[in-house]
Amino acid sequence: MKRFIVALVLFCFFTTSNAQPIFTKADTLRGSLNDQRDWFDMLKYDITVQPFYETKSIKGNVVWTAKVIKASNDIQIDLQVPLIIDSIIYSTENKKSTLLSFTSVGNITLATMTEHPSIQTNFKLNIYYHGIPIEAIKPPWDGGWIWTKDANGKPWMTVACQGIGASAWYPCKDIQSDEPNNGASLTMIVPDSLMAIGNGRLKTQSKKNGWATYTWEVVSPINNYTIIPYIGDYMGWSEKYPGLKGNLDLHYWVLKESEEKAKLQFKQVPLMLKAFEYWMGPYPFYEDGYQLIQSSHLGMEHQSAVAYGNKFANGYLGRDLSRTGWGNSWDYIIVHESGHEWFANNITTNDIADMWVHEGFTNFSEVLYVDYYNGTKAGNEYCVGIRRGIQNKNPIIGHYGVNEKGNGDMYAKGANILQTVRHSINNDSLFRKIIIGINKKFYHQTVSTKQIEDYISANAGFNFTKVFDQYLRNPQMPTLNYNYDSKEKILTYQYKNCVVGFNLPIKVSYNNKLVELLPMDYEPKKRLIKIDNFNIDNFIKAIQENYYVLTEDSKF
Predict the structure, then answer these.
(1) Closest listed residue to residue 417, CA positions, set 378, 369, 374, 466
(2) 32 occurs within a structural domain
(3) Which of 15, 271, 418, 529 sees the fewest Cβ atoms within 10 Å?
């Protein structure tokens, strides 16, 4: 395709001020790797829990297996009040168990180490606890245990704890940067009239004296907040999906009264996997399988055990969030929450301040899903449609080290950032390679947003640093000021309301020709546009449909 280069004059300026929130010592203890947390690496959690529906209480124990990576200190254990730690038993591979003394203040417990284990050796903590956990009132938007009943009056219990943290229901190292390398097991002791489902695969089950015990296990690294019990009057079925890494085990679990509707609606799961494996690479947890589990709340991205509560309807509870019509042809929760298996579960951010990597990429996976089945134009329309929820009042990225998640614009604005970068690259083959490459490069790892940004820039062949700075770290929208002289056929433009150095290349196909608005670094001169029947309104409309920028006519 012959290229016609538009002239440019590029100037940027940006001013902003944001009030600083007040953070407490508790925020820092939870959100950072302090001296009581940084000396060991989590290898595995073995969780046992027994819920009591009538009293809304639980008891259990959690065994930590961890490796010493530096000289040891006292150890921090996170467990949120009103749950209570009863005892902590420390043991090494070659020594007897020791009962540790500990002090609890608020949600933090500090246990005193009686010895200093050698670097590169493993140790275990067996933590017994009990109490009435925080109850979620509006899950999944707030967190805690969820105590409800099904249509037949049987107990239906689960947990949602993104944001509030896994320490709302079990003692853990409640920070995203340290996932247990060898996965986790979850043992649930429940009334024998109910079934308990967890992440991964069922390893053992037994019944005795009116109680049933189920143990599930994942072998892949897993983030704390996605280890979740599902307890209810469940029934299930299975199938295999012929995926990129062979046959993937798919398991579905729903309340017995939902079987007929679920078997029809869940036929969308293979469709989702086909689109996402095309765009993002192999499903990241073949070893643990994929499960879709009916929940009493809307949904959540629990690794290999996705929570589903969308009432077996397409859209978001029957609504198309984009208002374009494209969102009514597929089940929002199946697509969105499963998209998190790639971004949030395969790739997890070290700090929740960078949560846009989870939510922005996953919202963008909706665009890719629409694109895969309905074409690029439909995907573009869907992406533009979800812009209506963007507020642009605060930066997307939060403050680091204080357990502050990013701003809510991370969802729809995050998707539009990636769509903007995609169109700027103007090569879907390369862009797809980049998305697949991210999932391969950072497979089962925790990352920072900078690692993701740098990977995109390095593999796109263009430095998008200032573009990400503009959209992620500043709330203002960049404005493209333009003026077209129809007599001279000269288009002049500049960016305003942006960070210094903002250099987004805009590439638009117009009249079957590629028109490029390049940053000053590449072409500071004015050029004539050699395009017949050039319509500036149509050209600007094409920019608005592909790029998340404001446009404004100016006489300069």
Answers:
(1) 466
(2) no
(3) 15
Domain boundary among 473, 508, 527: 473
Strand ranges inside 29-101, DSSP E: 40-52, 57-68, 75-78, 84-92, 98-99
What stretches in the chain show pLDDT beneath 50? Answer: 1-18, 524-525
- 511: domain range? 3-15+479-553
Is the residue at 167 inside a domain?
no
3-class secondary structure, 297: coil
Please state the pTM of the whole predicted model.
Answer: 0.94
Same-domain pairing of 386 and 452: yes
CB 266 within 8 A of CB 334: yes
d(CA 47, CA 76): 18
Based on the fold, state whether residues 343 and 428 are members of the same structural domain. yes
Token duo for residue 456: 């995109």
Q: Evaluate whether residue 365 is within a structural domain.
A: yes
Q: Say what the pLDDT of residue 132 is.
A: 98
347 and 388 fall within a common domain: yes
Task: Check if the beta carbon of residue 82 is closer than 8 Å to that of residue 129.
Answer: no
For the chain, how are helix, strand and coil distributed in percent, rounded to 5? 25, 30, 40
Is 498 within 8 Å of 11 (Cβ atoms)?
no
| Length, in residues, of the chain | 556
Q: What local confidence, expressed as pLDDT, does residue 31 receive?
A: 95
User: Strand, coil or helix: what is 27?
Assistant: helix
**Residue 528: its pLDDT value, please?**
55
Spatial CB neighbours of 397, under 8 Å, sequence gap ≥ 6: 353, 354, 356, 406, 407, 449, 472, 473
Q: How many domains does the chain have?
A: 2
- Taking residue 69's Cβ as centre, other Cβ atoms within 10 Å add up to 12
Residue 298 confidence (pLDDT)? 98
Distance (Å, rounded) from C-alpha 157 to C-alpha 147?
Answer: 5
Q: Are residues 548 and 497 in the same domain?
A: yes
3-state secondary structure at position 492:
strand
pLDDT in tens, 54-83: 999 999 999 999 999 998 889 999 999 999
